[in-house]
UniProtKB/TrEMBL annotation:
Keywords: Glycoprotein, Membrane, Transmembrane, Transmembrane helix. PANTHER family: TRANSMEMBRANE PROTEIN 104, TRANSMEMBRANE PROTEIN 104-RELATED. The keyword Glycoprotein applies. Belongs to the TMEM104 family. The keyword Ribonucleoprotein does not apply. This is Amino acid transporter transmembrane domain-containing protein. It is found in: Membrane. It is a multi-pass membrane protein. Residues 96-116 are annotated as: Disordered. Residues 23-76, 137-492 form the Amino acid transporter transmembrane domain. Pfam families: Aa_trans (PF01490). It comes from the Eukaryota. Its main location: membrane.
Length: 504
């Protein structure tokens, strides 16, 4: 058997990740669940009540559908990228084989290449083995393959702004949550700009060794010091951390939903939200920006999954479960409380501190952002690291670079800027608005749509129309892509209105 033929067989059958680095589809769905469900969900009940229960329900289900559609675009583009890499590798093997045949004076390569291509290119009824999701191809690599220079510049600019902003928001949110639990409560007449110089502990005697700002910075350094080392590894190394915090996350949601239902049964509905209030729509969309976001980290979570044949269906089930969770949380909260805080956990602060159980619940819910963001932080940072590598290095030959450039530089560059920003600038409300709105719309809607449209053209020109992509999105009609672009424009308008209303 010619060496080129054996190389093709190895190319098709050899897994791109070690078996020990893979995980089941259910573990992968837990990863995606953890990434999507964060502190943004805690802002949903208040926004839900403002926009009205009817309008909010329709909007939330619609946003879940739009996010799922674009997640299928990301997977289709990733499969196209895998096909391109396999095609290029196959052409290289063919050239090497031709040289070997010429030197050995063996029969014409055409006698063998039909057999080599047969398992790759099949008819319309059988999907091609060109397409797979085995190789992790980050969004940055997809942009390098399928977008022109202007598209790549816009992509990397949007992605870096979003991911650096995300890491900064996560770091500040966790540090402030820890500070609020450790320190004494802030007086109600204190403004937001004065809290940092207050002593952490209210004491009438003795000096005050730590201010709230100093405790915030200590918590920030501790958090980044604990989560930062995960950035030097792959996402699989966070498996047990993901499973543990997923349990904490489900428990926190269950507590909030159960307590709200208990209040509804015990005292009746205290809140009376309208059915439709269009004026609350911009606020609702602002609250939903983070609610269904996973697209930037989807390739790193999908590639290690074993058995991807029905991955689209499993992902749809994951989105459905998350949407039901959000609706339960928002519905029970909107009707159980007459007044809803912007951060939903603040509604569960017990009035009777002598009740030990309620005090435990108070502390647990106050630490909810710590549980949720501790798992998302490494995934976001690893995604940023991988895309920075795609921007500055040739990812097809990473092993050829020196150890510092390959293993140390990019993890440090991913974590250090958010740490410095949140260390010296604890109030990042402007960053939250910009990151979660404009950059978020680009990451969730615009980038997947442009990538999948370009990838389809590229793979059709390269492989032909007869090569079937079994990971093709069910929303493959061009009308869906146009609809996403129109919706993105509407989102930007809604976000701009929301920001303008807050400032006016």
């Amino acid at each position: 058997m010619p060496r080129g033929f054996r190389s093709v067989r190895r190319l098709l059958k050899m897994p791109l990740a070690e078996v020990g680095d893979q995980y089941s589809v259910w573990v992968g769905l837990i990863y995606i669940f953890n990434l999507i469900v964060g502190t943004g969900a805690l802002t949903l009940p208040a926004a839900f009540a403002r926009a009205g229960w009817g309008l909010s329900t329709i909007s939330l289900v619609f946003l879940a559908f739009m996010s799922y559609m674009n997640a299928t675009y990301v997977m289709e583009t990733m499969a196209c990228a895998n096909a391109v890499f396999k095609w290029k590798r196959l052409q290289s093997i063919k050239r090497e084989s031709i040289q070997d045949h010429d030197s050995d004076e063996e029969p014409s390569p055409s006698q063998h290449y039909g057999d080599m291509e047969e398992p790759l290119v099949c008819g319309e009824s059988i999907p091609s083995r060109y397409y797979s999701l085995d190789r992790r191809v980050e969004l940055g690599e997809m942009a390098n393959l399928f977008l022109n220079k202007t598209g790549r510049i816009m992509f990397y600019g949007t992605l870096c702004v979003y991911l650096y902003g995300d890491l900064s928001i996560y770091s500040a949110a966790v540090a402030k949550s820890i500070m609020d639990v450790v320190c004494s409560s802030v007086p109600s007449n204190m403004t937001d700009g004065e809290w940092d110089q207050l002593p952490c502990f209210n004491s009438t005697s003795g000096p005050h060794p730590y201010t709230r700002l100093e405790v915030y910075r200590i918590a920030l350094l501790t958090f980044v010091g604990a989560m930062g080392p995960f950035v030097f590894f792959n996402v699989q190394k966070t498996k047990y951390l993901q499973l543990f915090t997923s349990g904490m996350r489900w428990l926190a949601f269950a507590i909030m939903i159960s307590m709200a239902i208990h209040l509804l049964i015990g005292r009746g509905a205290q809140g009376h939200p309208p059915a439709f209030d269009v004026t609350g729509m911009p606020t609702l969309f602002g609250a939903c920006v983070y609610s269904f976001m996973c697209h930037h980290s989807l390739p790193g979570l999908v590639s290690p999954i074993r058995g991807k044949d029905r991955l689209g269906l499993h992902l749809a089930l994951d989105y459905t479960l998350i949407a039901i969770f959000y609706l339960l949380l928002a519905f029970t909260g909107a009707f159980a409380f007459a007044r809803l805080n912007d951060l939903y956990t603040l509604n569960f602060v017990p009035k009777d501190n002598e009740n030990i159980f309620l005090e435990i619940v108070e502390y647990f819910l106050a630490l909810f952002p710590v549980f949720t963001l501790s798992t998302s932080f490494p995934i976001i940072a690893i995604t940023l690291r991988n895309n920075l590598q795609s921007l500055f290095l040739d990812t097809t030959r990473l092993e050829s670079y020196n150890f510092v450039l390959r293993k140390l530089l990019f993890p440090i560059v991913s974590v250090t800027p958010p740490l410095l920003l949140t260390y010296f600038l604890e109030d990042i409300s402007v960053l939250i608005e910009f990151t979660g709105s404009y950059a978020g719309t680009g990451i969730q809607y615009l980038i997947p749509t442009f990538l999948v449209m370009s990838a389809r053209r590229h793979c059709t020109n390269l492989l032909g129309l007869g090569v079937v992509n079994k990971y093709k999105s069910p929303f493959s009609n061009v009308a869906w892509a146009v609809f996403v672009l129109l919706w993105s424009f509407i989102c930007i308008v809604l976000v701009s209105v929301n920001i303008f209303e807050k400032k006016s």
